[in-house]
Amino acid sequence: MSTDLYLPALPTLARVFSSDAAGVQLTLSVFLAGFACGQIVYGPLSDRFGRRPVMLCGLSIYCLASLACAFASSIHMLIAARFVQAIGGCAGPVLGRAVVRDLWGASESARVIAYIGGAMAIAPLVGPTLGGFLTVFFGWQANFLLLVAISAVQIVAVAVMLRESNVHRRRDATAPRQIVDNFARLLSDRAYLGYLLTFSFSYSALFAFISASSFVLVGRHGLTPQVYGMCFGIVVTGYLLGSLASGRLVRRVGSDVLLQRGAWLGALAGATMLALEFGGVHGVAAILAPMFFCTVATGLVMPNAIARALAPYPTMAGAASALMGFAQMSIAALVGIAVGHTLSDGGASLAVAVAACTALAPLSYLVLLPTRPHGR
């Protein structure tokens, strides 16, 4: 919801704060940068102190920063508040993945993460539509006030319902040398690196659409914020379907096979979007249809890449999850910045970014995991 709810308000923010598209888009890319940096900290902290207390701390930071976003008086203040908001909010995904690894182990993690991904897809499914109505009827600040309310509910839910899952706490997990050693060990593992890059590029294709779609669909094609939100929801339905399909098929087919098929589906969809753009087909459907299949591919790739990457590391699941999240958000932020600075070309930069990222996803798998085509 942090990235999707206020998407229909981006053109409004540009007008209110007298900013260009690149400046407003920076509120998205800076959010990802904060998300990346925070995960590096939360992973080792949770390996030492446990998932629950660290998650509560992060959610509290997020709640306060969301309030600051709502009352920002300039684009620079909003950008700064978004960075702090991300530092707090990233506790949820990185520690959520670690909790799944703690409780379900290596064999069942892919199935559980896929179903969690399906549930998470509800946010981008309804977020832009809801954000469009909030922006039109209550102003852009209403989007961030809703995030304040949601985070308050999350804090209560974690405090009351979440039991501590980390039974392998390591006192040395936060020692600087140990952190460096853990990350070096992970990055030297070709399999882990292959899953990390496949996961990151698949997500980056989705983020390219997240960061540019409101300017392309609202600015170039004249959609209203409400209609834009509905179009965004249609695209994200693909992610929901891909995640649910992954959860149902992973026991029968295997994680690596689903990941491969998803990566190639994404590459085909990205190439189609690029061909339509440079072939002179510029309608809304030429963007939404290929992007729908890109998000189906992302739903297949992400849960299986996460589960396979974390499987060999039960005693450092927090660090392994954190490094994946750091790479995911860092690469996506760079893609978002590049797209934001080239939006003057209409929709071409969006098509190029999606095509490039979806091509790099299967390429990363082929280069770094050449001997594991049928692994489960």
Dominant shape: globular
Q: What CATH first level would be assigned?
A: Mainly Alpha
Number of strands: 0
Uncertain segments of ≥5 residues (pLDDT<50)? 372-376
CATH architecture: Up-down Bundle
- On the 0 to 100 scale, the average pLDDT is 86
Alpha carbon gyration radius: 20 Å
C-alpha termini separation: 32 Å
How much strand?
under 5%
Describe it for me?
This protein has 376 residues and is mainly alpha-helical. It has a single domain, classed as MFS general substrate transporter like domains (Growth Hormone, Chain: A, Up-down Bundle), CATH 1.20.1250. The protein contains 14 helices and no strands. Helix 2 packs antiparallel against helix 13 and helix 9 packs parallel to helix 13. The C terminus is likely disordered.
Short description:
With 376 residues, this protein is an all-alpha fold.
Question: What's the SSE blueprint?
Answer:
Elements lengths: L9 H7 L4 H29 L1 H20 L4 H15 L1 H30 L1 H17 L2 H21 L14 H12 L2 H31 L4 H29 L1 H24 L5 H27 L6 H24 L7 H21 L8
Helix pairs in contact: 1-2, 2-3, 2-4, 2-5, 2-13, 3-4, 3-5, 3-7, 5-10, 5-12, 5-13, 6-10, 9-12, 9-13, 9-14, 10-11, 10-12, 11-12, 11-14
Which structural traits does this protein have?
mainly alpha, single chain, Growth Hormone, Chain: A
